[in-house]
Design brief:
Helices cover about 35% and strands about 25% of the residues. The protein has 2 helices and 6 strands. The termini are close together.
Length: about 80
């Protein structure tokens, strides 16, 4: 699925939007970010955190760390 603007233009086809609302507290959120860093998935390179706290992650990085994200209850909104 491609992300599209309201005018129908593709924003970026290789991005997965991840919902982090199931993470209970900041300690768990920080733990998830630490686990991502340990496997080489780094903020600014492989993902970004939007203003709502969701993750915007490149599809290849998502494939490498999907198991970690599932452990923390993070689900893909747009895959």
């Amino acid at each position: 699925m491609k992300l599209q603007s309201s005018r129908g233009r593709t924003l970026h086809g290789d991005v997965v939007i991840l919902n982090t609302s199931e993470i209970a507290d900041y300690a768990d959120y920080g733990g998830m970010l630490y686990e991502l860093k340990k496997v080489g998935v780094r903020d600014g390179e492989a993902y970004q955190i939007d203003n709502c706290g969701d993750l915007l992650m490149y599809r290849d990085a998502y494939g490498r760390c999907k198991h970690i994200l599932e452990k923390f209850g993070v689900k893909a909104l747009c895959d």
